[in-house]
Specification:
294 residues, mainly beta, 2 helices
């Protein structure tokens, strides 16, 4: 699982929980074990005194483990501390649909397997088929069908100034780099970069200059650079085209999307899938049974 360390030396680590049997799923709501939780510890293994379940009484017949920070997760893959707000963000694999991006809160219940925007792999509902329930957190963004998110970063570099504060997620089943546009604490839009070109993105990294590097399951490393990057300008002058393993996006001004002028990249701006708390129309999925499966 991913591991994240804050400036105060406290480490956060989520634990996954994937299984078809109800006995496995129920563990994510059992605070007496670590399944489906985010654990928060000092770097020497001590439990922080301000953890939400320190000295807690029993909850639903279980004595909460004091190292638990929050719970109700299914299969966390990305964990990141926001560079501006210090908030902890996590994305979670759904089953057949229902991948989530969540802002983590101490003591919060993120619902698995009681609520989900996804379905069982055979098409049936998760639990009672509820997407939300009182007392459980609603994700800020969901993916239906699944994109199988992998790595997660919050971009704060200089190479792509319009991306500052945006989330960058690798997509394995979705085979692209996923960008979520953040404004005033809300996600307002999504962009899928390099769809069907970059492969199953497993890792995302940003260097000191703000250039973005992507690692895929095939072992290929791809760099995202702007048109004005000196390295790309030099390549054009010498050989007239680009090496196969270099992809770039336009660096012109925009609010929520890039332009279509790319090298081998299909940039598509998609409508917002922000979760509305008032209503949500439930539909049986129509995509193939293998879609979104890990």
């Amino acid at each position: 699982p991913p591991l994240c360390q804050a400036e105060d030396g406290i480490r956060d680590m989520p634990t996954g929980l994937v299984g078809s049997e109800d006995v496995y799923k129920r563990q994510a709501q059992d605070l007496g074990n670590h399944a489906g939780t985010v654990v928060r510890l000092h770097d020497d293994g001590r439990v922080p005194a301000d953890n939400p379940f320190v000295d807690s009484e029993e909850i639903d017949g279980a004595q909460p483990r004091p190292e638990i920070w929050n719970y109700g997760h299914r299969d966390p893959q990305g964990l990141y501390v926001h560079p501006e707000t210090g908030e902890l963000w996590l994305h979670d694999h759904g089953p057949r649909g229902g991948d989530e991006l969540n802002r983590l809160k101490p003591g919060a219940n993120y619902g698995w397997p009681v609520i989900s925007f996804g379905f069982e792999y055979d098409g049936g509902p998760i639990g009672m088929g509820l997407p939300m329930k009182e007392g459980m957190e609603v994700p800020l963004w969901v993916y239906v069908p699944s994109i199988a998110p992998s790595d997660l970063v919050v971009y704060d570099g200089d190479a792509f100034p319009a991306w500052r504060g945006n989330f960058l997620l690798g997509a394995m089943a979705g085979v692209h780099l996923n960008r979520l546009v953040m404004r005033d604490g809300e996600i307002i839009g999504e962009e899928r970069i390099g769809r069907y070109v970059l492969g199953r993105i497993r890792s995302v990294a940003v260097d000191a200059k703000g250039l973005v590097y992507l690692g895929s399951d095939s072992g290929r490393m791809t760099a995202l650079m702007t048109h004005s990057h000196p390295l790309l300008i030099g390549w054009r002058r010498r050989i007239g085209n680009l090496p196969q393993d270099v992809t770039f996006v336009d660096d012109g001004p925009r609010e929520g999307r890039t332009t279509g002028e790319t090298a081998g990249v299909d940039c598509c701006s998609l409508a917002s899938r922000r979760v509305e708390r008032d209503s949500y129309a439930r539909k049986k999925p129509s995509w193939p049974s293998a879609s979104g499966r890990r």
